[in-house]
Amino acid sequence: MSSTSNVVNFSNPVYRRRQWVNKLMLVLSGVTLTFGLFWLFWIILTLLVKGSEALSFSLLTQPTPPPGGEGGLLNAILGSFMMAAVGTVIGTPIGILAGTYLAEYGQRGWLAPATRFLNDVLLSAPSIIIGLFIYAIYVSQVGHYSGWAGAFALAILVIPVVVRSTDNMLSLVPNTLREAASALGCPKWRIIMFICYRAARSGIVTGVLLAIARISGETAPLLFTALNNQFMSLNMNAPLANLPVVIFQYAASPFEDWNRLAWAGAVMITLLVLGINIAARSLFRK
Q1: Does 38 map to a domain?
Q2: What is the pTM of this model?
Q3: CA-based angle 59:147:72, to the nearest 5?
Q4: Contact at 8 Å (CB) between 115 and 125?
Q5: Domain span at 71
Q6: Could you list the pLDDT tens digit for every one of the 286 residues in the chain?
Q7: Domains in the chain: how many in total?
Q8: CATH number for the domain that contains residue 76
Q9: In Å, how far are 168, 190, 204, 278 from 201, measured between CA atoms?
Q10: 182 touches 191 (CB < 8 A)
């Protein structure tokens, strides 16, 4: 074989056509990337410019005001925190246990593939469907809106995210670790608890954080479950104020002071979700 057989023939029309196609696709990819980032940064910049005017310490110390009054978002922040916390506490164990079954016990049979399919459907389902579901089975039965109903709706949104992340992370654990533990006489439950969970801990925590980030800004399910409360209340068995619904109502109101509070609340949720996503990415990278 001659020494020139591996030399690329730049005059070859096939090679030149591939070069032009490659350059064209790089340009198109760069244009679409720039287009998407432009709108993203525009949205963030608009939130910061309009929301920074209303950011103050009173947002964290005063409840939502009547039209024309002075106030903040304390009751909405506390209500959102309470419902998100309860929803996470309810949904996380269910999601982890379901994901564990899929990864550790669902290698055979039809149940695991069917569960994964239904979980993917639930993961992509509009959140307003979840709100209507909780309204039909809980709110309409008890006869009133409540923080518990909102927490149940958020828990349903948490479950599929945690199931997917737990299933994927446990599936990445090498089988050699399980086999080594089994060879030493370790039972299955102990292998899962002390080997698989430890190996996949950062990925599972990342999934929980991403689920919290998702439910932090959900508005539609809370409109049908928790609704809102103008006053300070910590009663989970009554309508409860929450930040997404307050933003929705105040942004659509004709009062300028409520509009400013809506922008401030939008900035707070954006920064919260951004911080949670950064923390989740950092854990996943580790």
Answers
A1: no
A2: 0.86
A3: 10
A4: no
A5: 57-285
A6: 444 555 566 678 888 888 899 999 999 999 999 999 999 899 989 988 888 888 888 888 999 988 888 888 999 999 999 999 999 999 999 999 999 999 999 888 899 999 999 999 999 889 999 999 999 999 999 999 999 999 999 999 999 999 999 999 999 999 999 999 999 999 999 999 999 999 999 889 989 998 999 999 899 999 999 999 988 999 999 999 999 999 999 999 899 889 999 999 999 998 888 888 888 878 766 5
A7: 1
A8: 1.10.3720.10
A9: 12, 15, 5, 17
A10: yes
Total length of the chain: 286
Tokens standing for 55? Answer: 């950011």
